[in-house]
Amino acid sequence: AMEEEAGEWHDQFWDICAKNNVVVPQRQQQQQQASGARLSEVTWTDLAAPDPGREDAARRLFTDPAHEQEQSAPHDLAEQYASNASEYWETFYNHMDNKFFKDRNCLFTQFPEIAKLADTPKVLFEAGCGVGNSIFPLMKALPLCTFYGCDFSSHAIDVLKTHPDYACGRCHAFVCDLASPDADTALLRSVPAGSVDVALLVFVLSAIAPSNHANVVRALHRVLAPGGCVFVRDYGQYDLSQMRFFTKKHRKLGDNFYARGDGTCTYFFSKERLEQLFNGAGFSTVFAGYDTKELRNRKKRLSMYRVWVKAKFQKE
Fold this sequence. Notes:
About 35% of the residues lie in helices and about 25% in strands. It is an alpha/beta fold.
């Protein structure tokens, strides 16, 4: 009975590949069946590295010219999504307020070095802080630190400022579009040059058109102190959420760049692309890699392959 139950599992990654004529390796099917019966209702499994078999299958899927026309958004629509990111996020926060994202209490697990700042009066800056889901857990854990946070949604900043912990005076939040060509100048109106010890970019760069990524990184370089660091966590190339975009028509805006149904966008990074971006702006790489996990939902009989990038860069 257990073997029969295990065979009912579906790996969403391979299901998408199979439906689009990419052959699913037999060994993947066997692994899925062999391990399915031993799982609790929901499990996260850390994987040592991205699966080369999945990477190869996804690469063939996304480079198949037969799907390009169906995948790609019309040029004028792609331009609209990419150039009006702040407007779409403003609409998002007007609708959601602080009810969508959960507090990121896991930041200390992802970046243990941040926890070591608890007894040190440092200055931290979060780019794309939203309604404060990272800032407020950090403020509670790092009582001696001062915080800056910016977002290009004025409504998100308004919501953040209503949080009871904002009144303590250790946090300064403001509106700033870091994707704009003059982002470095605009940021200096609120954050002194060379004053920041640690900067956070948590699922922020992915929301911005890749043509504007360099604007964000250049602005961070201006406000960081010599030796200051940037911690980055974002979506990785061939993550399941990117695979799901393949099933939707006219959502592709460019290589690894897609529009959601609400007009907000998301980009999926390779480690190499992330390093190239920061190294080109005067940062050295402390570490950069992938965080790969497999989520299994026993109730729904689903296996989900997730990929994120995680990195630390230092201002030279």
